[in-house]
Each structure stands twice: as structure tokens, then as C-alpha cells.
Amino acid sequence: MSPHNPKIHAVLFDLDGTLLDTARDFWEALNLLRAEERREALSFETVRCQVSHGGNALVRLGFGELPPDEHEVMRMRLLNIYRQQLAKHTCLFEGGDEMLTELERRGLHWGVVTNKPHWLTEPLLHEVNLSRRARAVVSGDTLSERKPHPLPLLHAAKTIGVDPANCVYVGDAERDMQAAKAAGMYALVAGFGYLGDDDRADTWFSHGWLHTPLDLIDWLDGRRNGAQLVSSSVPA
């Protein structure tokens, strides 16, 4: 194997909008909070594209710019409502289980690196029966840094026992690609995730674009065979 084309030993995933489709549960939680504040419900499409940006972005979407103290109170109210219905609708994206099964069949380890806090990440993975399958789970509060800093990705690779150069990181936000680049990993955009019109994903650093979770397997095969895949190109 050429040193410029190292063999892939592990795949790391962002959580919301990449490994798991969590948008409907966040949408319901935000609208429950808005109802408490006597505000009208937001459409699912409006909320979906903000889910990967976390609780802070959802509070700004739902309530605009608030004083810092009020914003933090609202963020925690939102997350506590969300925690009560953590996996009501959440599941793997279509093709996700087949993709993970194929990675495992090939002997490739996989893990999760997310900015979601530990008190939400761990129970969610348990609810969807993934906690025993993931070889590493790094949450937003596991370390002193979080994405786009590379430390969480490097920590996950160390936990699995692989070199970062032998890892792929898959995510649906620019900070995911930035973290992967800084960590020296391959970076793939989850194009099926929660991308909005303002994300300009075509300008992000990446090594490919996945239209579906199963495109990851095609990317791995194409890379091994030296092929240029249609699924690895960013849509116009």
C-alpha cells in the first residue's frame, strides 16, 4: 500500500444528521418549548437544517437573539424536553444499518465523535441499540476541546487503536470537515444530512460526497480500486 494512499482501518461518524436521523425529535421538542412560550409551531423543513448546529442554533431559530443568561436557560429547557423523548422518532438513516454491518463484516472499526453532550449521547446510542457496536464514543464534553478542534477525532482514533491517517470521518457540517482535515483524516460529507441552503458545502474541504449511507461502502471500494465514483462528487 502506497504511503500516499494508506489503508482505512476505522470510520468515525458525526451523530445528528450523519449516523442518526434525529431531526423529528428535535423539531417536536423545539415546538413544545415554543408552545410553552405561546408561539406558533415552526415547520419541520425550517428546523431540520439547523439540527446539526446544536441547541444554541435551535434556540436562536426559535427565539431570536436573547441575552446570554436567558439564552442558556432556554437552551437547557429545550434539551431537557428533548431528553424526555430522546428516541421517539430517531433511527439510523435508510441504509445505515446495512452500512455498519458491512463495515463490521470487513473488520473495520467504527465510532462516534459528536458535539452532543454526554448525558444525551450515551442514552441515545443505548436507545437505538448502537452503544455496544461503537468502538469509541466521544461527546462534546468528553474533552477540553470539541469540533472543529481535531482533539476529539484524535482521541477516538487512539481509543480504537488506529492511526488517524487510517481513519475516515463522516459529517454533515463544515466543522466536521475542518476537524477531519486538522486531524489528518479522510473527510466525507454526509450529503443526506441536515444541510441548509446557507451551508455552501461545495466550498468545504472533503474527499467525497455521500448521497446515502451505503455510498460509504462504494467510496471505500472505489478508493481501493482507484475508481472515481459519481457518489463522491458534490451535487451542482
Overview of the molecule:
The chain has a 6-stranded parallel β-sheet with strand order 5-4-1-6-7-8, sandwiched between helices. A two-stranded antiparallel sheet has the order 2-3. It is of the alpha/beta class and 236 residues long. β6 (167-171), α8 (174-183) and β7 (186-190) form a beta-alpha-beta unit. It contains 9 helices and 8 strands. Mean pLDDT is 93; it is low at 228-233. The protein folds into 2 domains: 10-21 and 91-232, HAD superfamily/HAD-like (Rossmann fold); 23-84.
How many discrete domains?
2
Report the β-strand fraction as a percent range.
Answer: 5-15%
Helix content: 40-55%
- Report the CATH superfamily of the largest domain: HAD superfamily/HAD-like
Beta strands, count:
8
**Main β sheet profile:** 6 strands, parallel
Global geometry? globular
Determine the N-to-C terminus distance. Answer: 33 Å
Mean pLDDT over the residues: 93
Radius of gyration, CA atoms, in whole angstroms: 18 Å
- Low-pLDDT runs of 5+ residues are 228-233
Structural class: alpha/beta
CATH class of the largest domain: Alpha Beta
Could you spell the SSE succession in H and E letters? EEHHHHEHEHEHEHEEH
Q: Could you tell me the CATH topology label of the largest domain.
A: Rossmann fold
